[in-house]
Amino acid sequence: MLELKPAMLLLLHGCLAQHMFLSSQRASQVLVRSRRANLEYFEELKPGNVERECVEEICDYEEAGEVFEQPDTTESFWCRYLECGRDWTTLRTRGRINFIRKCITPGKYK
């Protein structure tokens, strides 16, 4: 059987310990998470909200239907929403949010 001297064990421990432990910066990255669209707990259980569903986020016809719940109202809103712009794949910047808000509710925001 191979007998290791105490000095050799200490040296071996030092070499292996570098690979076993992370730096504090790398260890802290485990705790970081990206923000989700839902800012409150159980937000998906709240009734639909045009501001939240279709202005701050990119919505589809189904989400608009959840907000208005009536097919005629949903269709009217959806036509107006599509007329406000064609490029819905871009991120929501403050300027784009303000533009969409004013476009879908023209009399409310001036």
Automatic annotation (TrEMBL):
One MF term in the entry's GO annotations: calcium ion binding
This protein's GO CC annotations: extracellular space
Gene3D superfamilies: Coagulation Factor IX
Residues making up the signal peptide according to the UniProt record: 1-17
InterPro entries: Coagulation_fac-like_Gla_dom, GLA-like_dom_SF, GLA_domain, Peptidase_S1_coag_factors
Chain ranges of the Gla domain: 37-83
Domain of life the protein comes from: Eukaryota
Name the UniProt record assigns to this protein: Gla domain-containing protein
Organism, as annotated: Perca flavescens (American yellow perch)
